[in-house]
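Second attempt. The first submission of L-ascorbate oxidase had a stray character pasted in from the spreadsheet, which I only caught after the job came back as garbage. Lesson logged: always re-copy from the clean sequence file. Corrected sequence (486 aa) follows.
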Amino acid sequence: MIRNIGVECQGPDDKWWNILMTQGLACKNDTCRRNDATCECYLTIEHRLTMMNEKDRILLLPSEGKFRPFNDTRKTYSEDEDDDFIAGDGFGSRMVIAVNRRFPGPQITAYENQNIIVHMRNLMHTDSTTIHFHGLHQKRTPWSDGVAFVSQCPILPGQIYTYSFYAKPFGTSFYHAHIGDQRSAGLYGPLVIVPLSSVNISTPQDDNDGKVFTVAIQDWNHYDEPETLYQRMLFGTFDLQENKAINTTSDISGANFSRYTCHSGIINGKGRFYNTSKTHNQAPLTKYDVEPNTDYRFRVIGAATLYPFCVYIQGHGSIRIVASDGFEIEPIEVESLIIQPGERIDFILRTDQGSGNYLLVAETLEVEPESINQYHAAEAIIHYIHKDSNNNLNPPKGSPNNCTKEIKCKIFNCPYLSYPPDQNRTCLTWNDAKTIDPNSNIDEVKGVPIERFYNFAFPGGEWLHSRVSQWASIFTPNCSCIRRMG
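This time the job returned cleanly.
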C-alpha cells in the first residue's frame, strides 16, 4: 500500500475490471454511498467504433429514432439494445475512445469529502493517456491532477494507474483526457460531488431519487480523428464535391470560430445529423423520463471541443439557474443559457406542460444563413410519463420558444452584451449572478477589486459598434481581473 499526504492509495482488485465494464458503470457498488469513507472506481480505456453491433459484427443505420442492421430494413433494436451501441449522430462509423465500453464514460457520483480512488487501465493499442478531474482543486494531491508531463507521466498502453483525491468542492464536474485531443474522441465522463450539508443548497441534488439528470454536450465532427483536427484548423477544410474551401463560421458579434467543422451536436453520446436545415437522419436521442408537475435538476456539462451552445427546452419558457461550475448561485429565471467548453451550469425545470414529448435543444452560436441550409444542434427528448403521452422516439425539429417585445427571452451567460433588437432577447452576464455558495468566502477577500471586461472579438453591425465605444470608455491600463467577453 502506498500512502500519500492525507490520502490513502490502494491497488486495484482485478475482479472489478470486467464486472464494471460489463455493467457499463464506473464504481463499486459497496462504495460511494453517503456514509462511505471512500468512492472506489475502475475505468478501462479502449477504442470502439460508432454505429457498430459488435456482437453480430454488423454495421447499424438509424431508423425512426432506433437502430437497424444496415442490410435489414424490417428489423429494429429495442431501446435497451440501443444503449449497448455507440451512436454519435448516426452518420457513418468512426473511431472513438470508450470508458468501460461507454461513450461518453460512465458517471462517477461521490459525496463531499469522500476519498475518491480511480483505478485506470489503458487498453488502447498505441496511445498514452492521462485523466484530469475538471473542477476539483486537488489540494494536497497535485499528483492526481492528471496533466501529462506536468503532474504525472502519461499512462502507457497496457499500464494501470491509480488516482486518489478528496471529493471537494461539491457540484457538477467531469473527468476527461489531458493528452492531445482525446477528450474530443470521447474520453470524458460526468463527475458529480453531492453536498452533505443542506444550507444554501438547491434541491434536488442526489440522483438516487430519479430527479437529477446529466446533460453532457459535445460538438461532433464526422471525419477527423483527434490527431487530424489540429492540422485542419491550421490549413483549412475542403468540400471536394462542391470543389471549394469550407469557410469559418461566426457568431452574431462577428467573432470567428476556427476551421474545425461542427457537423452536429450530441448529448450523452447521442444526436442526429441534419441533412438540411429541417430534415434529419432519424438517429436515436438521449431520453429523459419526467413526471408532470415536478422539479428536476439538469446538470449541463460543456464537453465540446470548440463551440458554445445555447440551451433551451421546447415549450418551456422558463428554467431556473441554480449553480455554475459547482458553485451555488441565487436562482435566476431565464428562458435559455449559453455554455462554453469546460463550463458546467445546473438548472431546475418545473415540468408544468401537457403530456407528450419536448426537445431539450442545444444550438451552436453560429450564424447560419438560410442559403447554407444547415442546422448544428444537440438534442434530447424530455418525455412526460403519462398514460396518454406519446413516446415518440423520432420527434421533428424543435420549435424555438416565443420571444416578443412585450415578453423578451432572458439568456444567461451571454458572451456579448446584447442580441440584435429584432430577436427580443435580453443578455444576462455574470454581473447579474450572486453567489450563495457556502464555499464562497467573499469576506476573506482583502482590498478593492478592479474589474475590466475585454472583448477579444471583432463586433459587427451598428448595434454592436455603439457598445464597443462604451466598453472602450471604461478601459484603463491597470486591472486586476480579466474576463473574456466574446
